[in-house]
Amino acid sequence: IAKRTGLRGARQVNLKLTELKLQIPYRDSRKHLHYKLTELGHKHATYQDKSYNSSPPIRHIQWHESVLDLF
Q1: pLDDT tens digit string along 8-57?
Q2: CA 3 from centroid of its chain's CA atoms
Q3: pTM score
């Protein structure tokens, strides 16, 4: 998304997605920053679980092409 919108990386993209009310930031019990989709965000993204080695799956947000129209 950053390359296609002219933003300078994931932080700026996440700030913009939050400003657009597509996602909400939150911190887990270990103070790590995560995001969850809003109702509007669900129209432009889906959750995707990814597993690394034998660790439990990690949930990622997969944005659809339609989100680019909002930038």
Answers
A1: 999 999 999 999 999 999 999 999 999 999 999 999 999 999 888 878 88
A2: 15
A3: 0.85
Kind and range of the H or E run holding 45:
strand 45-50
Which pair of structure tokens corresponds to residue 12? 């700026």
Helices (H), the chain: 2-5, 10-19
Place of tokens 């597993």: 51
Burial call 2-30: b when 16+ CB within 10 Å, e when fewer: eeeeebeeeeebbebbeeeebbeeeeeee
Cβ count near 35 (within 10 Å): 18
Compute the distance between CA of residue 66 and CA of residue 44 in angstroms, rounded to an integer. 6
Query: Which is nearest to 37 in space by CA: 24, 48, 50?
Result: 24
